[in-house]
Amino acid sequence: MTQPHSPASFATRAVHAGRDDLTELGVHVAPIDLSTTYPAADSAAEAMRMDEFAAGAQPAGSPIYARLHNPTVARFESALAELENAEASVAFASGMAAMTACLLAASQGNQKTHVVAVRPVYGGTDLLLNSGLLGTNVTWVDADKVAAAIQPDTGLVIVETPANPTLTELDLAQVAHACGDVPLLVDNTVATPVLQRPLEHGASIVLHSATKSLGGYGDVVGGIVACSETFARGLRSVRIATGGILHPLAGYMLLRGLATLPIRVRHASENAHELALRLQADERVAHVYYPGLNADRPGTNQMSGGGSLVSFETVDDAKDVVLGVNLITPAVSLGSVDTLIQHPASLTHHVVNSDDRAACGISDKLLRLSVGLEDVDDLWADLDQAL
Ligand SMILES: *Cc1c(COP(=O)(O)O)cnc(C)c1O
Asked: According to the UniProt entry, which residues carry N6-(pyridoxal phosphate)lysine (predicted)?
């Protein structure tokens, strides 16, 4: 008797997802398709396929035009969907293009232009929501007030956990319950699917800035949304209409990045945890923020590791630490193989109104460290001299 086929472990899927047909194709790595247009002689048949693409489906056959579909990008999409345990995923030119498409897809054609969101979120997301640029209006609430803030026209609830840059954690099952029928979008950029899979805790949409850990080497910009096939169709329609597509070369690099995602994230997470402990024991540091560092945490078992970000408040001027590092690069962004440090109040969260910033815990003394794969003692030596 044959054993039922067991689903492969996460690490195995990270290496093989999106590549099932390569052997059949007679190649070992994913081909890169750079075509902007494709032969399409049967006009009547193509007209029908045009309609299908516009409605967000992915009909077999010629992609017709690169803004409608790209086979290399589709590999990255199917791989990420597999890692997030989602039916589908849709890739975009950047994390903010992905967020834009989510806001448009959730509000178009149904008058559901109201969004409920919990601070802190990424500075760009905060700005996009607050600006009302896409015809949405936002109510900012604490995590325990989500249910009360939902209105008949609420189309989306948006949260980040751990939140950037304070690493505040939310209990996703609790928030998902509070959302009722309204889709819960979780920005999972910081945790990655290695440490946390929000769909398993009741969320309906997962967003990534693929620019960060998914890419992993600081050399590619992209965004991706994992969700149901129904929501994915809405996203693809928006993507075709607005043009925020991921370039096939970026799709190739992101697929390649997924193969090493588990080992990169786990190792960076171990480094970050060790640095968080050393910072916490240091008298030049006033406070350390790191998931799981202090025993009392919501959503226990939601994350299987603390992640690669550590934030901390200094006793003296935080900006001097950024000036003093040598090995560590003073720079925004996160999730790369190398360690970066930045001052959120001046950079990533500068666009957030200063009162709102202070209210959600982003003080002028706060620094955010994105920990890479260097030797932890070398990283500590650099931080120690900078402090
Ligand atoms: C960087 C980032 C974004 C925006 O992504 P881009 O790729 O820069 O557009 C969104 N959310 C989080 C948590 C981020 O770190």
From this structure: 212
Alpha helix (H) residue ranges in 154-225: 172-179, 192-195
Q: What is the pTM of this model?
A: 0.95
Return the H-helix or E-strand segment holding 144.
none
> Once rounded to an integer, what is the mean pLDDT over residues 147-152?
97
Is 317 tagged catalytic?
no
Which one of 190, 211, 308, 350 would you pick to mutate in the ligand 1 pocket, going by the greatest count of ligand atoms within 8 A of its CB?
Answer: 211
Active site residue 217: no
- Over residues 367-371, mean pLDDT: 97
Residue range 261-386 forms a domain whose CATH class is alpha beta
Helices then strands, each counted (H, E), the chain: 14, 12
Handedness of CA 338, 341, 346, 351 (dihedral sign): positive
Question: Is 187 considered catalytic here?
Answer: yes
Count how many residues are written for the chain.
387
Q: Are 302 and 169 a contacting pair, CB within 8 Å? A: yes
The residues spanned by each domain of the chain are 10-258, 261-386
Task: Count CB atoms within 10 A of the CB of residue 291.
Answer: 27
Each residue's pLDDT tens digit, 184-239: 999 999 999 999 999 999 999 999 999 999 999 999 999 999 999 999 999 999 99
Assign residue 243 a region (left: φ > 0; alpha: ψ between -120 and 50; beta: otherwise).
left
Instruction: Assign 3-state DSSP to the chain and report helix, strand, coil percentages, each to 5.
Output: 40, 15, 45
- Report pLDDT digits (tens) over 263-292: 999 999 999 999 999 999 999 999 999 998
CB of 223 shorter than 6 A to ligand 1: yes
Tens digits of per-residue pLDDT, 4-38? 455 689 999 999 999 999 999 999 999 999 999 99
Closest approach atom of ligand 1 to CA 189: 13
Atom 4, ligand 1: which residue's CA is nearest? 95
Q: Report the residue among 94, 99, 121, 122 best suited for mutation to probe ligand 1: largest number of ligand atoms under 8 A from its CB.
A: 122
Residues facing residue 312 across a β-bridge: 288, 367
Say if ligand 1 is within 6 A of residue 211 CB: yes
| CATH fold of the domain at 10-258 | Aspartate Aminotransferase; domain 2 (3.40.640)
